[in-house]
Amino acid sequence: MEEFDMLEPVLEDTVSEDGGTEEDEQATLSESDTPDKPISLFTIFVGLLLALAAFIGIIFVQEFSNPQLSRAKEPLAQATTDTKLLTSLQSAQDLPDLSLDSWDLVLVGPNYVAEEMNPELSEVSGVLVDSRIAEATANFLAAAQTVDPNVHLILGYRSLADQSGLYETFIAQEMEAQGITREGAISFVDAYFQAPGTSEHMTGLAIDMSTVDYVNLMDPAITAQLAAMAPDYGFVLRYKESYQAQTGVAAEDWHFRYVGVEAARYMTDYDMPLETFLTRIAAATGTVLESRPSSSAVTDQADVIEAEEQMDETTPEMTEITE
Ligand SMILES: [Zn+2]
What we know:
Number of helices: 13
Helix content: 40-55%
Bound molecules: zinc ion
Distance between the termini: 55 Å
Structural class: alpha+beta
CATH topology of the largest domain: Muramoyl-pentapeptide Carboxypeptidase, domain 2
CATH class of the largest domain: Alpha Beta
Oligomer: single chain
Order of helices and strands: HHHHHEEHEHHEHEHEHHH
Strand content: 5-15%
Number of strands: 6
Number of domains: 2
Largest sheet: 4 strands, antiparallel
Radius of gyration: 29 Å
């Protein structure tokens, strides 16, 4: 608005140069439009200045009014660059200065078995989370509910004992329902429920959040919006289909993991799972990311996929308690 205020007296001057008064301003303006009357260079200059100011204004608004947008544009620009090397160099340069020992970067999964962590817990909207992420969780939930008011928390912290109890229950159910051995039942259950010591929910840093109470049944457009806003609150969508080889866990549209804002933005911008991110941090800090495989973890990916397919056909109701 400032530019227009400044230009008002200039425009009046231009009009009065043509000999018009305020009363016959309209007539004077149309007169100056006729080709036989040369437009003053000053008028052209002012016009160009105005256009330039508007252009800069638009660029400024696009760049700074929406930090999410400007961040999202970076990887897009890189993707269109035909050199993977450039992206690789850029990602190495952007790697946050973090340590593998950071409390919010703890890695738990089928290949990273953990003992009970006993985190200090706080309740957020009916679920328990590590107290250190209670505020971030509440803020993320509130933001997610502006996307869809049906978004709610389903699960936060789950103790190792509870995980073990449920795991054993499912194994017993599968053995009885299918008349199979314990080993057979374990490989079956591992496809839809995390073995004891391998679930991120025992960290208190993971939440299941969806519009519905079933995994992978949220509108994918909403999942995409939640995944895009998650880094602003320190979360990432943890189990994407494209991450399965690294995570060892099938895609889940509702499982978000707190890793801190800096790590979350990096992982989202460069589209990588926590395992890949921590491998990079380890390399950069001269440390080693040691794997701690679960004895019952299904290491053969083909077995996991096969078991999943069977599960889809036979026990669809089990998706409710996935992970
Ligand atoms: Zn989960």
